[in-house]
Write the structure tokens for this entry.
Amino acid sequence: MTLTELRYIVAVAQEKHFGRAAQRCYVSQPTLSIAIRKLEEELGLTLFDRSSNEIITTESGQRIVDQAQRVLEEADRIKLMANKEKNELEGIFKLGLIFTIAPYLLPKLILSLRHQAPGMCLQLDENYTSVLTDSLKRGDLDAIVVAEPYHEAGLETIPLYDEPFFVIVPKGHKFEHYNEVTTKQLSDERVLLLTEGNCMRDNVLDSCQDLASRQKILGLSNTIQGSSITTIRHMVASGLGISVMPATALTENDHLLFSIVPFAQPTPTRRIVLASRRNFARPKALQMIKDAILASHLSGVRFISDNN
């Protein structure tokens, strides 16, 4: 049994296809297939069901694959331990961020990181929480920035900041001159939300129970879905409806497009966290990402220090 064979079975389990797994491992498909057959013979187990077009990991095989993943992670840790001169703050750090955070955090994070750890480069991935989580679990990412609630087996989170939501309305809307708006008042309005599958949509509906309840009754009759925060901002500016935005998505020049109204207390918020695999091999690099985010001076948020 070799680490190479373990990498092959992990790749096949994740890709569910021998050809794609071979491409990912930079070997020919026959080379990969022969190596896996050899491992199966050595173990006396069938790891993959090859009877259909999509390769399915057997129940016994899944347990072997999970252990192989852990072995590969520990092998990477040994490499770091063996090279005592290696600086954790040098080289590439693979960071994932959800769509509703990346555009607003990254410019300031990169400037902060350039000052604090100039030798650490970011390889970035913007995506949905579920996709980022899968990438993190299989080791394609080192850490991800996501919104709570977030609970995943084998992963741990570090709280970063709490971010309040605001209501944005077209010019001339009745809310424009309100000092504050309640979540209940939103339920009678045409509210523009992000498409399903986006965690910020869930954050808004969790915070605005009246709006969520009305949605269950009326479906989408009083809401319109948008694919991105930028799209929703422009639809609000055009007069199509109102929406709810996180503080970081608002700028000082937005008043030219629409009006921004605060929520009445208690203000709906979302908590942003940094998630990583347990026993991640570069704890100093992970801490540096957190420190750089805390030093990024995002406006309108409450940072959570180690003392909070």
